[in-house]
Amino acid sequence: MEATGILKLRVILDKDNAEKLILPSCPNSVQALIDEIKSRLNFTFDFRLQFHDPDFDNALCNFFKIEDLPAIASVKVVRLVELDRISTSTDDTILQTERGEVNFLPSYPSGETRESLKTRRLEMVEEFKKTSAERDIPLIHQHMMRTFALRREEIVTTSPPVSELKDRWPALFHDTQLIGLYKKRKTGRVGERMEQLLLAYGKQDKNDIYATRTAALAGLPMYLKEDSSEIFKTCKDEIEFYEATIALVADVDEEEVPGGVPFSPRQVFIVLEDQVVMTHHSWTDALVCLFGLIYALHLNYPEKCTGFFEFIQVVLLKLDDERKQLKPKLQTLKNELV
Asked: What is the reported pTM?
């Protein structure tokens, strides 16, 4: 489209949510459009875009050229942590993991060899040596999709340490119903903790979607009677950041966080294998990224919170449609939410 024309967008967030956005003119690049969407919709996470391509009966296609976008268009936001779920091959080897989901070892894409994929990986490493403004984001997206098979093969078969993966695949590390159920749990020790959570939530701005999501997700381990204290932490001392295999560490101002829930952290650190691999300003965004990293890096769920992560995987994200039966407490919760 012409750069001077008004751009009307339907920005799709998920199957149930979309935002209308009207821009006075079309940005001069896809990255500029992403930056504009991020700014206007107050997104704090990194994402790429897909669009409904009129050349293919409005089927979703990856969006790399701004000139492909019609003046009135629908674009879909795809978080970068979701990239590793995309396979570019149909000739797949299937493995069953301890978490119960089906994992794939896909064949290399047509026309690619191990050497060509290694070259793509090295090109991405070089891109991440540049500043954020200098990086070729469309190139990185394309390479991440094309190298899925090589990356998955490496992660599943050799289980390299996170520190090595961060060096080899830097792009991997780049970013109300439950509340109603929680109100029923007000007896016993679990009820006391839930009461503290709800009291803390009651002091938050009810128009703040992040507060609602934080309360819902932070309360889930309590509801399932799981101990999340070793995973969800708050502190003011950087020494603690490096003392966890898997953790979210919220940097907070208060000595004691009401209800143990970091509604207003300064920042949230994602810790894997005793090192900080990513940071976010939102606790819920950090949790999404943590789950994505656990899934993408083929890590086991923390032993004391397997139900919490399985619920996110199977019920919220529907990543395991082949599972015939959930654990009883997860099935009960799922039934109450239906």
From this structure: 0.52
* Sign of the alpha-carbon dihedral angle for 184, 221, 317, 40: positive
Q: Which of 140, 173, 206 is the last residue of a domain?
A: 173
Calpha distance 279→269 (Å, rounded):
5
Mean pLDDT of 257-274: 78
Bridge partners of 48? Answer: 78
Strands 72-79 and 7-14: parallel
For the chain, helix (H) and strand (E) counts, in that order, are 11, 11
Q: Is the domain of 182 the same as that of 328?
A: yes
| pLDDT(166) > 90 | no
Q: Is residue 2 in some structural domain?
A: no
Going along 217-281, which residue ranges are E strands? 232-235, 246-251, 267-272, 275-280
**pLDDT tens-digit map of 275-321:** 888 888 888 888 888 888 887 788 888 888 888 888 888 777 766 64
List, in sequence order, every residue forming a beta bridge with 96; answer none if it has no partner.
102
Structural domain of residue 106, as residue ranges? 86-173
Q: Alpha carbon of 14 to those of 17, 57, 79: distances in Å?
A: 5, 20, 11
Reported as a single tens digit per residue, the pLDDT across 301-314 is: 888 888 888 888 87
Closest listed residue to residue 153, CA positions, set 169, 138, 141:
169
- Residue 90 maps to a domain: yes
172-203 burial string, b = 16+ CB within 10 Å, else e? bbbbeebeebbeebeeeeeeebbbebbebbee
Q: Which of 173, 188, 205 is the last residue of a domain?
A: 173
Residues 73, 92, single domain; the answer is no
